[in-house]
Amino acid sequence: MQAVILAAGEGKRVRPLTRSRPKALIPIANRPIIEYVIDSLIKNGIRDIIVVVGYRKEQVTRYLNQLEVPVSVVFQDKQLGTAHALKCAESKIKEDFLLLPGDNYIDMGSIAKIKEMRNAMLVKEHPNPSNFGVVLLKDGFVTDIIEKPERAPSFLVSTGIFSLTPAFFKFIKDNNITDVISGMINEGGMIKGVAADDWQDAIYPWDLLKMNTRLLSQIVPSRYGTSNRNTTITGAVQIGKGTNIGPNTIISGPVVIGNDCEIGPNCCVMPNTSIGARVKIEPFCYLGNALIMDDCFIGSHSRIIDTVLGEGCMLSDHTTTCTSVSIMEIEGAAIKPEFGAVLGDGVRAGAFITFKNCIVGNNVTIEDGNRVISSFVPDDALVI
User: Fold this and answer.
1) CB of 14 closer than 8 Å to CB of 71
2) Whole-number Å distance between alpha carbons of 345 and 14
3) Per-residue pLDDT for 260 more than 80?
4) Domains of the chain from N-terminus onward
5) Angstrom distance (rounded) from CA 70 to CA 377
6) What is the pLDDT of residue 263?
């Protein structure tokens, strides 16, 4: 069996984190999302894998070329939709195949449920179905898919994962897979709905924290760095090569820390935290439920919780993120999320800054001062 992974899109609703990387390459528990998808395929014995790339295609191709399993790469020159992306791979499809998004987590057991089926899709109940294609079933077969309805008639949504035959290509008359599936059903075709065991998407940037928590629960403890004898480490914790954990630091897993980091002394790293490579965290810091990407710096006496930090963020001492709820508008939709902060790549913040339920764009500079950032800050802004 073959598999086609769609990784051509940007992931606009996850901005600012996708300006410098596609959503499929966002690191969750220090591994790109697409890597979990590929792992689940390999564990099911599927090694003929085709990946459709488009947005920042060189970056994705470079990553794929580093994998141990060979992957075929197909280019989508213009991001015109999921069905158009699949159509770009048609010449490489020789047999029944799985179709999967490269920016969603899916477990190996769910793939095993449909890999032997012809014309099936994985579905899953979701508390916010209007963000997805809502699926209606009758006798186990799909009767309709309603794309992002304002009032969803069901909590059952499409995961975007299908088991299809090459005959599916004759139904492609639109650019969106949902429309093609609907057209196929209208022409008498049948698609079986199969409940996924474990699937997760991140619609908005703060959703990455939930995905991070989910995937950190799977980690296998390993320690390659060095730690002081007065360091306390409990639970499932991974510590990368070249990383040094200072004395009197407490790490409570699940936690992942990358290579060549400096943590502490006298820090607390609490559960559901992932720390990328070459991160420096100065003394007397508290971190919890955080996703911190590579090359970040966090000054002393800082408190970072419920927060996503993009690559290369430099936060001075006494930085605080404060979890709160507010109403935000993203792509015309009013939503009410609860989180601390989402900072894009290269944010520079002076001392005594509080981030409260805010999104800060890439390469923003915030000058010193006892101030609270509680709104959206666009890319490249200077806050004085």
Assistant:
1) no
2) 13
3) yes
4) 2-203 (3.90.550.10), 216-383 (2.160.10.10)
5) 41
6) 96
